User: Which sequence fits this backbone?
């Protein structure tokens, strides 16, 4: 868990909150199955160490990840309801308050 928190700090709070919103939306009962598949795909791409541009490359390494997450956020704008936002904010607070 400490490694996860360290990684979360490195990418920044707003980005982590958006990732949590995607994760909560992907798990929500009301999210259509096709959207869930796209969200899980985007989240999986983000956490994979080897992707189109390796994350170890300074600055450019996360560029492809950011593009995939931005596309997923655009796709999921209807699935990110106030309830999803509240749940993601709660998870964010719990994860960072134990640091």
Assistant:
């Amino acid at each position: 868990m400490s490694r996860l928190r360290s990684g979360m700090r490195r990418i920044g709070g707003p980005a982590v909150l958006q990732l949590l919103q995607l994760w909560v939306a992907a798990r929500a009962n009301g999210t259509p199955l096709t959207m869930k598949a796209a969200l899980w795909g985007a989240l999986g791409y983000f956490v994979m160490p080897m992707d189109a541009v390796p994350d170890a490359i300074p600055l450019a390494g996360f560029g492809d990840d950011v593009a995939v997450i931005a596309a997923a956020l655009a796709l999921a704008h209807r699935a990110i309801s106030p309830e999803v936002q509240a749940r993601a904010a709660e998870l964010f607070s719990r994860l960072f308050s134990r640091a």
Observations:
- The chain has a mean pLDDT of 81.
